[in-house]
Structure formats: C-alpha cells, structure tokens
Task: inverse folding
C-alpha cells in the first residue's frame, strides 16, 4: 500500500493524517459487489486516515488505478485532482476558450488545476507562482505566469493607462493559495478581475479551496454570491474514473495533439519516523512543487 501524507482538521471530525492512497484490495464488504475484487489495484481517498499499512475506504472514494500511472503517482491524485476537477467543472464551469487564472500554480492543487483546465479546453491559463517556478509551471501548460514576488495579479491586468484591461479579465479564477499558511488573501482582488457577463457569456467565477473563518461561516450559513464559491471536495468514484481516463487516454487539444494528465511528485519518501517528520516539514514550508508521497513498502 502506498499513501500520501495530508493533514486536515476542522471542519472534519478531528485531525486526519493521510487522505490519498493507492494500493491493492485485501478484503471487501458484502455490499461492494463485483465492481472490485480481492487483488484489484485501486486508488482514491478516505478521511479515516491512510498513513498506515492498511486503510478502510468507502466505495464512492475509490476507482481502479490508472494503468499508465505508477503507484506513487496514483497515490498522489485524490485530493488535488478531485479538488481541481470539481472546482473548475462544477463551480467555475470552465468551457472551451475560457481565460483561467490558477493561484498557487506550483503547489499540489495548482499543478493539477493547470492540467485539468487544459483538458477542459481553457485557452489562456495564467499561473501565479514565484519567478523561480515559472519554467516549471509553463511546462505543465500555463500560457503565462504572474511572479507574485514582483507584481500583484491586479498589476498584471492593468493597461498602459493604469486601468484593468478588459481583455485580461478572467472567466475563472481558481484560488489554491488563500489562507494556505502564508497569510495570502487573494479573494477581494480576484473579484475585481472577473470578466462581466455578456450576451452568450457567463459572468466570471471565483473558486477558492480554502479561506478565512468568515468564508467558512458563509459556506455553512448564508452562502456566497452567484459568482463566488468556496468548495468542498466530494467523494465520487465516477470522477476518479474520469481522472484515470485522463491519465490513460488523455484528450486531443486544439492543435490536434494528444495530451495526458501527469501527476507531479515533489518528493517520494520511505515510511519511517524521520521521513515522516521530513515530509511534514516540507509540506509546512509551502515550497513543495506537487505532492509528497510516502512509499509504504520502503521503511528503510
């Protein structure tokens, strides 16, 4: 069994260490039916914890492992790719030709978001990251990059007169950085950069995967305006099957070329006390490019 380390607290029921996993079915319940059998290679996620030799999972949280993904790659996918897919498809409503901004583009959800946006036909995909990660982010499919150490996303959108250029507004802003541990808050600035509704074109959508306490309160009470969203990932085996297909079969881009989802691994670590501490420190540093994965077969 391979798992990826992840730590989640509120609003879940207590702390959870490990959500993502990939492994082999050892046992199955009576209600599983014929969809999965003993020995099947699967991947997915569970809030019961996966940083262990065995994990107990629900049927809606698993799918057959992508054939073209390694165990390590498959173990890295659930949280970031499910979050990005549901954010961009269900909340952002990304459609072909949309102009999309990915904030936190070099992190786990950001790297996934760039690839998912490409698979959905987004034309301009602008990534927000530090300048040292620009080449990396462009390599994933971003068409342009905002170096947040040199300019704000608003500055990036200004014309020569200091006004927001209508052609630089965004149809979808996917915020994978706000309230992620570094004090960032892109919400107010992002709302001012959304494209307005026009004939035959939806209003731009802002989708965050985290937020300050007031955003969490709105999520569970009065909700948000129609063009502002804070999402919670939902276990969905059909979405996992779709993601596996993007890895194995890919999609044809506008140039007629075949592209594929390729999970980004920041570091693979053995499963021992020292490496677990190392993995947590790398995660807390917020400098990991992609996902941190623990190989449960390697305890050395």
Result:
């Amino acid at each position: 069994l391979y798992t990826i380390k992840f730590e989640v607290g509120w609003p879940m029921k207590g702390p959870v260490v490990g959500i993502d996993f990939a492994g082999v079915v050892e046992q199955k319940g009576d209600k599983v039916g014929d969809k999965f059998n003993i020995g099947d290679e699967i991947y997915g996620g569970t809030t019961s914890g996966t940083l262990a030799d065995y994990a107990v999972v629900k049927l809606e949280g698993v799918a057959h492992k992508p054939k073209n993904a390694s165990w390590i790659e498959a173990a890295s996918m659930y949280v970031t790719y499910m979050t990005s897919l549901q954010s961009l498809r269900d909340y952002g409503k990304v459609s072909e030709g949309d102009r999309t901004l990915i904030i936190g583009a070099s992190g786990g959800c950001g790297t996934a978001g760039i690839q998912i946006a490409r698979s959905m036909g987004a034309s301009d995909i602008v990534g927000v990251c530090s300048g040292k990660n620009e080449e990396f982010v462009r390599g994933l499919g971003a068409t342009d990059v905002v170096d947040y150490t040199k300019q704000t996303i608003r500055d990036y959108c200004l014309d020569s007169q200091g006004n927001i250029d209508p052609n630089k507004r965004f149809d979808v802003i996917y915020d994978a950085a706000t309230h992620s541990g570094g004090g960032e808050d892109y919400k107010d600035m992002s709302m001012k950069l959304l494209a307005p509704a026009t004939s035959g074109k939806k209003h731009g959508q802002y989708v965050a995967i985290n937020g300050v306490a007031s955003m969490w309160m709105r999520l569970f009470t009065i909700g948000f305006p129609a063009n502002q969203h804070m999402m919670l990932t939902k276990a969905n085996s059909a979405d996992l099957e779709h993601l596996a297909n993007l890895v194995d079969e890919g999609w044809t881009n506008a140039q007629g070329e075949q592209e594929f989802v390729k999970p980004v691994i920041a570091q693979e670590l053995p499963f021992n006390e020292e490496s677990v501490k190392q993995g947590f420190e790398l995660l807390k540093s917020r400098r990991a490019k992609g996902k941190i994965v623990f190989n449960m077969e390697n305890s050395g």
